[in-house]
Write a structure and sequence with these properties.
Layout lengths: L1 H22 L7
């Protein structure tokens, strides 16, 4: 379903953002 695909994309983006926040010593997103 399209909804499942959208949810998967959102989760992927969230995971990527979390990874960046964890790897960077200073949070880029405030």
């Amino acid at each position: 379903m399209a909804l499942d695909l959208a949810l998967r994309l959102v989760l992927d983006e969230l995971g990527l953002a979390l990874l960046i926040l964890i790897k960077s010593p200073t949070p880029t997103l405030v």
